[in-house]
User: Which sequence fits this backbone?
């Protein structure tokens, strides 16, 4: 099974693994910035899910409020 490691800060990383039932497709990635990951079933098309990993720092404060997070997710999910 494939495994993807996303580095979102000097102290944090996220691991996303494919399973017997789920596919993992990395849509976009920029280390220490962001990663967009699509999860879909291997057997049918009953759902699809996008995981958005966003990096932030205290000096940038891009996602330090709920409204900023919502705006970023909405912008990321537009086609």
Assistant:
């Amino acid at each position: 099974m494939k495994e993807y490691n996303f580095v979102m800060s000097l102290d944090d990383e996220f691991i996303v693994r494919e399973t017997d039932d789920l596919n993992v497709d990395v849509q976009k990635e920029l280390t220490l910035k962001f990663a967009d990951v699509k999860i879909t079933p291997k057997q049918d098309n009953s759902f699809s899910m996008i995981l958005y990993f966003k990096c932030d720092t205290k000096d940038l404060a891009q996602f330090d409020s709920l409204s900023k997070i919502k705006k970023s997710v909405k912008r990321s999910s537009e086609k």
